[in-house]
Structures are given as C-alpha cells and as structure tokens.
Amino acid sequence: xxxxxxxxxxxxxxxxxxxxxxxxxxxxxxxxxxxxxxxxxxxxxxxxxxxxxxxxxxxxxxxxxxxxxxxxxxxxxxxxxxxxxxxxxxxxxxx
Length: 95
Prior knowledge:
Elements: H1 16-28, H2 33-47, H3 55-79, H4 86-93
C-alpha cells in the first residue's frame, strides 16, 4: 500500500481453471488471491526483476512431474505383483 493509503483496483482477464487452481493453492498457504498477487508485485518492485520461470520451463516441470508420477505408479504395480512376466507375455501374445 502507498504511504498515503491509496489503493488501486485492477481488472484483467484470466483463464477460469487457472484462477480456480491458483486461488485454491494460495488459500491452502494462507493467502487470498489479492494478497498473493500483491506479494508477487512487491517482489517485482523490490527485486526489479520478474521472478518467474518461462512457459517452456513450466511445461518441462509439468512433464517431469507427470513422468515421476507414472514411474511411481509403475513401481507400485511391480511391488504389489501387478505385472506381466516374460512367460505371461509369451503365453498371452505368442511372442
């Protein structure tokens, strides 16, 4: 907030799903959407840089997390005995 207490209302368009997800995560961490955005803008102003990853970096992170989940699920299946052996595949598919 400015030293004189002025507040500026800001309006912008945002993807509805992104807003819902981000708002939920902010709330889980004790922030309102307004407080989260204010904190982000304060970071930009204080650091004089934009503390964000690029779209490509975010997509790579999303894909990496997805791959980690798939690997974990596969390991869980193996550990629970829910997999096919070589013999099972030969019998089933005649390989």
